[in-house]
Write a structure and sequence with these properties.
The complex is a heterodimer. By secondary structure, chain A is mainly beta. Chain A has 2 helices and 4 strands, in the order βαββαβ. In chain A, strands 1-4 form a two-stranded antiparallel sheet. In chain A, strands 2-3 form a two-stranded antiparallel sheet. In chain A, a hairpin with a 5-residue loop joins strand 2 (60-62) and strand 3 (68-71). The radius of gyration of chain A is 16 Å and the shape is elongated. The termini of chain A are close together. The radius of gyration of chain B is 20 Å and the shape is globular. Chain B has 12 helices and 15 strands. The longest helix of chain B has 30 residues, at 216-245. The chains are: A mainly beta, B alpha/beta.
């Protein structure tokens, strides 16, 4: 809920929901309606980056050197594709329920 | 200047004077004259319009949406199954807040198949977010068509407008129509007023994007505001049109003998002519009867309706579409809600008439006044139906 407070009210949104800033899809939080998210286990992760290209939402966060640094939970839709791609045993990504206050 | 025109020809003439940029249509009875007459204007070079003979009504509305989003004036004409086929994209037009004009010659929906008039087509679209104005005559169809873009394109409204008129009873009724000089009409309608047009390449815009639950509600709320604002804009445009033509449209309703009326018929469209005759006859016999005709159904003028009916004792709301399991027909439900919302409790009954263009004459309107208040008057009654 705390995130939603930052969004504009209905009077401040362009008429018809028209988007006036092109190339802005990165700013859209695709996963904030989902009840689950992917949690990353840094300890078992081998930094192979196989999860990064399969994520449809660009939710896998990687630093400039290409090291995985986490999951953007606001973008993650809990589809689980990254878990399928993860080669470690146990998996270094797993689905977890969000806390109520995070939704 | 007077011309003898039927409703369709009157709308086509108004469109010629507007000279819209795009006309996309798939002709259907009883609105066929409109694209037919208009395409002759196109062929003879009397308008600059791009006429798009699409393969379906769904495509007609889609073409209009694309054109309107690009920043030009788009129009279509349809009826019945055609309007039903547009249903899905009607929501896109209103959701993207595109001031498209749609002329609808009201016709029944199948089955059984009927080409004749009733209001079931446009009443089925009442919640699509389109402004709906209902004409009672070729004259009003012409007048409202000229006003439509000024209402829809207003910065506080930005909504598509449906001008509805009764199939055959108005669409095919040839009568005297007072028309404006071309230049006077053109100057009144003026140039298109755009908002974020797609063809403004310096300022790119995205229409119809995906939204999650965190945005959709706000965008719909804004749409509702546009519809609420439309009430004042309809009045303003109607008043301006009145100054120009002598025919005032500043009120969303028309009333007849309503000041001291005890029994009032509430109705939409062409059949108000029959009610008018009945009211005049019964008044000459000393009976306190009146009529209220609703011209703007979306937005519904709740306060104006309540204000007009507050002195009445009995109200007969006439619907030209079947209630389909509802408390009553759509006009009955709106009228009743308007009264209740204003804490006005009257005896309100519903009369279903004219389904599939069943005859509705002044005699039938008199029967409604007679039945109103009788013991066997039910919540929903049927006029001129064989038992």
């Amino acid at each position: 809920m705390s995130k939603e407070k930052k969004l504009p009210g209905w009077k401040d949104i362009p008429i018809g929901g028209v988007i006036l800033n092109p190339g802005s899809s990165r700013e859209y939080n695709t996963g904030n309606w989902v009840r689950e998210t992917c949690k990353w286990n840094k300890e078992s992760c081998i930094n192979c980056n196989l999860c990064w290209p399969v994520c449809p939402e660009g939710a896998i966060l990687v630093d400039k050197e290409g090291n995985m640094i986490g999951v953007d939970e606001a973008k993650c839709t809990a589809c689980g594709l990254c878990i399928t791609a993860c080669p470690t045993n146990p998996k270094s990504l797993k689905l977890e329920s969000k806390k109520l206050e995070e939704i | 200047m007077q011309k003898i025109l039927n409703g369709n020809e009157a709308v086509a003439l108004a469109l010629k004077q507007i000279n819209p940029d795009v006309f996309a249509a798939y002709p259907i009875t009883p609105s066929t004259h409109i694209p037919e007459v208009f395409s002759s204007y196109v062929a003879n070079g009397l308008v600059d319009t791009e006429f798009v003979p699409v393969e379906s009504e769904h495509s007609a509305m889609s073409a209009c949406i694309g054109a309107a989003a690009s920043g030009v004036r788009a129009v279509t004409a349809t009826a019945s199954q055609g309007l039903a086929y547009m249903h899905e994209v009607l929501w896109n037009a209103s959701g993207m807040r595109l001031p498209i004009l749609l002329a609808n010659a009201n016709r029944a929906l199948s089955a059984p198949l009927s080409i004749h008039g009733d209001h079931s087509d446009s009443m089925s679209q009442r919640d699509t977010g389109w402004i709906q104005l209902y004409a009672d005559s070729p004259q009003e169809a012409y007048d409202l068509t000229l006003q439509a873009y000024l209402i829809g394109e207003n910065a506080k409204v930005r909504l598509p407008v449906m001008v509805c008129f009764d199939g055959f009873e108005t669409s095919h009724l040839s009568t005297n129509v007072e028309v404006l000089e071309d230049k006077v009409a053109k100057d009144f309608v003026g140039e298109v007023k755009t908002l974020n047009p797609l063809l403004d390449l310096e300022n790119p815009a995205t229409y119809g994007s995906y939204t999650n639950p965190d945005w959709f509600f706000e965008i719909r709320r804004s749409q509702h505001e546009g519809m609420q604002n439309a009430e004042a804009v309809i009045a303003k445009v109607g008043k301006d049109f009145g100054k120009l033509s002598g025919r005032d449209y500043s009120e969303p309703i028309e009333t007849l003998e309503i000041e001291d009326a005890e029994s009032v018929i509430v109705i939409i469209g062409a059949s108000s002519g029959s009610v008018r005759e009945a009211v005049e006859k019964l008044r000459s016999e000393g009976k306190k009867v009146g009529m209220l005709r609703v011209r703007s159904f979306r937005p519904f003028p709740a306060d104006a309706v309540e204000n007009a009916l507050k002195k009445a004792k009995k109200v007969a709301v006439c619907d030209k579409t079947m209630p389909a399991g509802g408390v009553g027909g759509p006009l009955f439900e709106e009228t009743s809600s308007a009264l209740i919302a204003n804490n006005l409790h009257l005896e309100v009954k519903n009369f279903i008439y004219g389904i599939g263009q069943r005859q509705f004459s002044p005699t039938h309107a008199e029967e409604i006044f007679a039945k109103l208040g009788e013991k066997d008057c039910e919540r929903i009654n049927f006029v001129n139906l064989r038992e």
